[in-house]
Design brief:
Blueprint: H1 6-18, H2 39-47, E1 63-65, H3 76-84, H4 87-98, E2 105-110, E3 117-120, E4 125-129, H5 130-142, H6 147-173, H7 182-197, H8 199-217, H9 224-228, H10 234-248, H11 255-258, H12 264-267, H13 270-285
Parallel strand pairs: 1-2, 2-4
Antiparallel strand pairs: 3-4
The structure holds zinc ion.
């Protein structure tokens, strides 16, 4: 990752100074789910298998990066860096090597006029808004992180959110059976991919997201709207993120418990909880895995 972010920091510093926080919400949220216009076609696509291997699905799509022009020049610098670093291309490459897709899914970063990241089934896309990245940067800065650290953690937290949105897309594209809250399932999908597939970088992503959840949870009391929202509360997402990470390697992350971040009563259940998450997602994705 390039450390050349002085221009971005300058832009952000100006923004923080001259604007009030534009955050509509301290959580990523999606547009309300809409019935897919071509649900019949989608259902048919989702059940196709290859003649050679009846258990494997047919590969009829790719993760495709779509670069859009920034509308607001305040995000021009971060847009240039995301494109120069080929962040989306690298993610698309990993996903394309791992997963069979029934149709294309477009990956985008752009300015949205909203602090958000979302999967849109009509547009067949996952979008991360630059406003959300800025929000993460400000969140980490507000807790005392240096510019350098906040910038680093911003990308890590965005990786967690991006894979959460990929989780929504996979649930929809593959017609995966999810019997509880889909928002939690998407968080678990992100934790599974990050912790099981992406090594230290994945751990960093889950812990950066946990950190953001913890900071955000201290920034106000819950409104009825937040309590009614399908997303879990930030406190719960914080503990779930810690539980998944601790559960993935209790010895390595024992300090979560000894230092009081993760209550013992929850911690004892986390290895089993993590294993169930891993087994469930592995089973669900198995027919869609490339060999
Ligand atoms: Zn979601």
């Amino acid at each position: 990752m390039s450390r050349n972010f002085s221009n971005l920091l300058f832009v952000l510093a100006i923004l923080i100074f001259i604007t009030a926080c534009v955050c509509r919400s301290d959580r990523n949220s999606e547009p309300p789910p809409q019935p897919p216009a071509n649900s019949q076609t989608k259902a048919n696509q989702a059940t196709k298998t290859t003649p050679e291997n009846p258990d494997k699905k047919k590969d009829e799509g790719d993760f495709i990066v779509e670069h859009l022009e920034v509308a607001n020049q305040r995000y021009a610098e971060i847009d240039r860096q995301v494109k120069d670093e080929k962040l989306l291309e690298k993610a698309a490459d990993k996903l394309n090597r791992a997963l069979i897709m029934p149709k294309d899914l477009y990956l985008r970063t752009k300015d949205c006029n909203d602090v958000n990241a979302y999967y849109n089934s009509d547009e067949e896309s996952v979008t991360v808004c630059y406003e959300l990245m800025e929000h993460f940067f400000k969140t980490f800065k507000s807790a005392g992180d240096s510019d350098d650290k906040a910038y680093d953690k911003m990308f890590a937290a965005v990786q967690f959110v991006f894979l959460h949105e990929i989780g929504h897309a996979l649930i929809d594209y593959y017609k995966l059976p999810i019997t509880a809250n889909e928002e939690d399932a998407a968080d678990r999908c992100s934790a599974y991919i990050n912790l099981e597939e992406l090594g230290d970088e994945g751990v960093k992503a889950v812990l950066a997201a946990a950190d953001a959840f913890a900071i955000e949870s201290k920034q106000g009391t819950h409104t009825d709207r937040q309590l009614a929202d399908e997303h879990l509360l930030q406190e719960q997402r914080f503990y779930n993120s810690l539980c998944m990470t601790y559960g993935s390697n209790p010895d390595k992350y024992s300090s979560f418990v000894t230092e009081g971040y993760l209550p013992k009563d929850r911690a004892v259940r986390c290895p089993g909880e993590y294993q169930r998450t891993v087994d469930s997602w592995k089973n669900l994705l198995e027919p869609w895995r490339k060999d």
